[in-house]
Amino acid sequence: MKSGSGATLLALVAAAGWLRPDDASAQSWNKAAFDTKSMADTMKALGGGEPVQSKDIVFFQTPDIAENGAVVPVGITSNIPKTESIAVLIEKNPNMLAAVFDIPPGTEPSLSTRVKMGQSSNIYALVKADGKYYFAAKDVKVTLGGCGG
Amino acid sequence: MADPMKIRATLVGDSTEVKVLMSHEMETGQRKDAQGAVIPAWFIQNVTVTHGGTTVLAAQWGPAVSKNPFLSFKFKGGAKGDKVTIAWVDNRGDKRTDEATIA
Amino acid sequence: MRLACFAAAACVAFAFAASAQNSTTDGIAKYREALQEGNPAELWEARGEGLWKEPRGPNKVSLERCDLGLGAGVVKGAYAQLPKYFADADRVMDLETRLVWCMVKLQGISEADAKKNPFGNGNDKKSDIEALVAYVTSESRGVKMNVSVAHPKEMQMYRVGEKIFYFRAGPHDFGCVTCHGGDNQRIRLQDLPNLTKLEGAQKAYTTWPAYRVSQGELRTFQWRLNDCFRQQRFPELEFGSDASIALTMFLAKNANGAAFDAPAIKR
Fold first, then answer.
1. For the whole model, what pTM was predicted?
2. CATH homologous superfamily for B6-101?
3. Which domain holds residue A119?
4. Which of A25, A58, B40, C124 has the fewest Cβ atoms surrounding its Cβ within 10 A?
């Protein structure tokens, strides 16, 4: 099952032309995952099953109201053991996935960045830990949309 | 060639805290110009942070990351004087690599 | 807020409305606080420092010999005492007009070229002035505002600026005072500082220039005044004009005593 979805992912990524053999650090960009409009589609593109809600994923320095959706600070800490990656999804954005961070061993599973929100929406913190997916949600109100104009 | 990043790497206990500001338009591809034509998407797709040859963070970004992106995280280890290197590649193939010394 | 509640339902509704209001302004205050870290203005500061030190223009000279009022090349604390009368130009200048002056006199750049792109727009249309302003102002962070009106031309500019502040014009009969002349005024969710009171005047002036999130750019005080004129539907405030310097003089001097705290970051 796992290798099957891995092959699909690889095929998607290769088809999108984002695997460059000349890159010393074989960087890939999961085009399919950044093109999804739902959690289910994002999970399919990431090659994972349905995530389980977890109280061990915490938002920090993430405001309840963003004066301007163009810059919304979001901080996520995962207290789930063996966290491998943290992704940020914005439910009502034109495409849900904003960013995926791979957390190698030795790196704290906690980071903060800034994202654009087109409108008031849930922000999902999606964590992959020990091969399984978990998520937490935070509702953020946006007074001025940050996607266009 | 894009403007240099502003990187701050500081030793906090036995961890290194990295804060970086990158100069990039992060154009979503959703906007239209005055003539009504779509302004093409232009955004950083990959970010890699390395220390002593080891990758301490690897990220894939979409255009929903804010313009002039800011990122902050911590990794265990590092010593004053060590170098932390950050590299990004965008969807046009433009690249930028900068390094900072852990203080 | 304590209320003597007899009509319990009405009371609850009123209290709830009041607390919803407060939670909104609290929420926005939290947003602004969370923004403070990682201010993209630093990118402009770095570029500006490069531009200050780089030999440029036909004369291939750097701006390091530019006198911003504290002596040639002295940048530290310079912004906190501007605008100021400069004998070599025989006029009062704010930072931006002084930078243009130095670019013309020292570097040999034409005035038209120096002034042609004061407000940048994206990576393709970066403004050198904005970067230089970011750098110079960052060197005044923490310095107490100390603008002088001792010279008669400085006092004259202050008085003219004051007149402009209170002058009502344009299709809406607005003046700066319309929005900034009272307490607790607001446009949508933005609280308007009362610039006729010391606290408001200090807080407003010491936080420009700023990275304006909504613009995605570092915006200067000249930009702020230009945009206020636009919002009032006034004719365009010309970049570096005497009117803009006069208004800046009025507002800067009124902020004296407060520690300068920019480049900041704003919505």
1. 0.87
2. Immunoglobulins (2.60.40.10)
3. 48-142
4. C124
